[in-house]
Amino acid sequence: MPTYKAPVDDTLFLLNDVFHLDRYGNLPGFGDASPDVVEAVLREAAKFSEEVLTPLNRVGDKEGCTRHPDGSVATPTGFKDAFKQMVEGGWIGISVPAEFGGQDLPATLTVAVNEMLCSANMAFAMYPGLTQGAIAALLAHASPELKKKYLPKMVTGEWTGTMNLTEPHCGTDLGLLRTKAVKQADGSYQITGTKIFISAGEHDLASNIVHLVLARIEGAPAGTKGISLFVVPKLTVKDDGSLGAPNGVSCGSIEEKMGIHANSTCVMNYDGAAGWLVGQENRGLPAMFTMMNEARLGVAVQGLALSEVAYQNAAIYAKERLQGRALSGAKYPDKAADPIIVHPDVRRTLMTIRAFNEAARALVLWTALKGDIARRSEDGKERQSADDYMGLLTPVVKGVLTDSGFANTVMAQQVFGGHGYIAEHGMEQFVRDARIAMIYEGANGIQALDLVGRKLGKDGGRALMAFINEVGGFIKEKSADDGMKPYVTPLGVALGHLQQASMWFMQNAMAKPDNAGAGATDYMHMFGLVALGYMWCRIAEAAIAHAKTNGAGHRMSAKLTTARFFMERMLPETAAHFARIQSGAGSTMELPDEAF
Amino acid sequence: MPTYKAPVDDTLFLLNDVFHLDRYGNLPGFGDASPDVVEAVLREAAKFSEEVLTPLNRVGDKEGCTRHPDGSVATPTGFKDAFKQMVEGGWIGISVPAEFGGQDLPATLTVAVNEMLCSANMAFAMYPGLTQGAIAALLAHASPELKKKYLPKMVTGEWTGTMNLTEPHCGTDLGLLRTKAVKQADGSYQITGTKIFISAGEHDLASNIVHLVLARIEGAPAGTKGISLFVVPKLTVKDDGSLGAPNGVSCGSIEEKMGIHANSTCVMNYDGAAGWLVGQENRGLPAMFTMMNEARLGVAVQGLALSEVAYQNAAIYAKERLQGRALSGAKYPDKAADPIIVHPDVRRTLMTIRAFNEAARALVLWTALKGDIARRSEDGKERQSADDYMGLLTPVVKGVLTDSGFANTVMAQQVFGGHGYIAEHGMEQFVRDARIAMIYEGANGIQALDLVGRKLGKDGGRALMAFINEVGGFIKEKSADDGMKPYVTPLGVALGHLQQASMWFMQNAMAKPDNAGAGATDYMHMFGLVALGYMWCRIAEAAIAHAKTNGAGHRMSAKLTTARFFMERMLPETAAHFARIQSGAGSTMELPDEAF
């Protein structure tokens, strides 16, 4: 049975020592996020994750969700009680404005908490996670009446939320969607259609479920410009806030899938269900896109979270499992064999995952902080620059953290040998659960295309230039500092690759867009390596400063070793990405479709 | 529901045009393998795989095996009938000497057939596959009496075989094993102990199961030098060959695991079971090792097989699924959207898998051919050189083909988007099934260590030198040929990396073995890339020759494009591997064990 210990100290180190959260006290809401409040929230979330959610993870996988003939769906044993505790803890609304019952704390903190929930029990964490996404959509676009009607109970978690985009014939290409909305005399709409892959679409954790549904209003244009967003509650809500009759929406079936068994993935049938327009007619897709960044960051966190919990269990196993002897001679001669952590290949595996996890955690917190600034700053220029950063980094963070997060669960499973393949150890569940994060909220190939096709050139490349200047500036500033050289020198090389690759796209993809498409995934991963490398430099800087103030300790010196491992063994991959990008679309696109 | 079409034409092209099987007609048994016999065998195996085994793959995954309270194990619906057809087809013994009922055809052909069986239904194919492994062990080491008693019925498949190595506390480190053997007056032994992870340990497909068991004879030395190999039948076999009483061996439980559900992975309890010594006392481990190469090649084939079937289904889906438009404008304007195969990132995915599959198939056939030569040649020097090759390439082929095979199933699954995560499409099963191949028959980290720690330096590096000379000689020979330049020039660069990395180990790992251990996995993958690159050069050479004789056709020109893709996009990775190797063990080994 896997265990989990939330990385509270590491998160605090990042927030306090690396990113200096205290410097953002002027942002609305950040004043309340004093170091002791932040620490208290994290320690409480850690306790809930470790003690309540972790033990339910295997149970949830084994039992899965059950759809009854009446269309109701039961979650696994223990989930109802755990969700009740979630509601009582007020976890869903920690970053929601106080007027709707939230605590108005930075979204950065929500991201840190969500990592813990996902590590402990990803399938469970999706229920509150999707509710947070629906809350964000309503906050941004719904009328005051709709907000007042739905938000307070969603913020507590008494009601949960969902996102309904995909249909059987359309996922990525939402322009093809067919779900219909017919306007009624009272201003509401009748929604009819079938949605698939609806996470948390039906369950027994909440008294109501608030579906956000994309549909096409009768007579609206074809394609993406005729799509509107609606709120469709499972049970209608009366004007006094009490629950009314069932609405015409039901769960037709739940999917049998590779992982996240404890989250119900539903086919949802809308049969003339009453819905209310969120935002403007035909502007449903842009409305969805405004919260895409947060949603994608949330999925990136899942990649990190599973990588972290898989790492922890692999490290424990590697220290316990006795097998063979160290290459340089027995290291624990009193034991029947050495623990497998003495073997360089096991070390390499653990170091690779660890070097990813710490930098990835920094990157999601840093990106979330930019999101907070973009939403909360009173300085327009600061908002714009933070928003640029968020837009540029979102596809990178989503694509890279979920690809690597999955790969890391596979590596951690490998440390267990044959035992990793057996369900009871829980390692194979991490692999199966992590796999979905590469797919949903925009498959990673789409993230890469979003980055290369949309974000790079946006506003004349303003966001990219700002990123390159920030990283380049940091390197320049530190290049004379002997303590920082081992980190900034390799980062300089990698940044050079990123600049050259960006240039290559500018020169070669205008006339032939396939040249960008064929290199998009490599570019995204190269970008991710540079961003993670930059985070390691920031961490190294803080670790050196921390050691100066508090004396050199094992924890800080481990960070420096891990930073060096990243620079020596992971960052050099940018060269291979660059070589692939430069090969262009030629051999990739040459064969006729029939040849496949 | 996934489909499968066996790659008969590609296999024939490799055997005939690339490797010129006809040139080996002087090897015993090869004379019978005329081109028409080979083709007939492959077409028949293809039919059986496509029509009988493929439809049972999902069924097998869904139902799994069931252990009844009496210890008997039922295989999934349809497996018994399919296995009966397997026996009737004589598939198990196609490469077994005629005196035991086999057809004495090249093992190369068995490898080609096994790829098809594994693509169609890996969990099923393991039952005959393990039987073939047990046959090989008995052929190599058993006394004439034991051979006569067991082999004929195993060769038909009336009885199946297993390998019993692992115990709860020992997998890789067999020196720790505890299963006991006590000699009896009649020359037999009483075997007592518990074995785990025993594939096909108990089932209902055959009337008897012949277990090969590693155990320690009472009084034998501790460690690996006190291990002996025994044959322990499920039902004892009377001298007239008829079945006698049940032996003291039973299936204690079957494991719940990530994949290959249709193969029963058993805990086997030996409770004073009667066993007979195979080979010499205390020489069990070397006996096992003599058939390790074939067993590992068999697992490598599983990696290729799942990559192939996953590719085929992803290619079909990519041509059918309509979503979005080509970057350069609609390619199928009459359809609601373009099929996703127009997107460069989807193409990149398909080309990557395909460029692996064709070269990997060449590599396993080529390695198997070396195995045939090592066993059958009458020229001692030829036998030695083939054996060297086999020994050197086995860890590379096992490690690289299963790592990449798994990664390719993940990539193929990604092409399906959300549908790839749903069980009914079958793509997620390929991922789960492929995962085990990286673990069993020596986890891939062990393969890398075997390569670097054992095979490189063996006999003064004779095998490595021979490989480098063969590849280097080929490059030199073709470097003046303009048609071959696009393939041999990049291979020369990669071969250079391999040579330099080998040199680096010689210079840096003698004094500090961890320097080899920390680079072992990178070296194995670098070696794999060079070997696959060499295969692509051989294929390109044959494709150009074929086109000259038969006229340029789509099939041959697709091979040249795919070879170029490999050279441009996959081979350059050797540089990143080399960079990692050169970084040595420093940051990998620096942290104390407690820091993890």
Describe, in plain words, how this protein is organized in 3D.
Two copies of one chain form a homodimer. The first copy, chain A, has 596 residues and is an alpha+beta fold. Among the domains of chain A are: 8-141, Acyl-CoA dehydrogenase/oxidase, N-terminal domain (Butyryl-Coa Dehydrogenase, subunit A, domain 1, Orthogonal Bundle); 160-282, Butyryl-CoA Dehydrogenase, subunit A, domain 2 (Beta Barrel); 461-588. Chain A is 56% helix and 11% strand. The first copy, chain A, is built from 18 helices and eleven strands. In chain A, β8 (235-237) and β9 form a beta hairpin. The longest helix of chain A has 37 residues, at 514-550.
Summarize the structure.
With 596 residues, chain A is an alpha+beta fold.
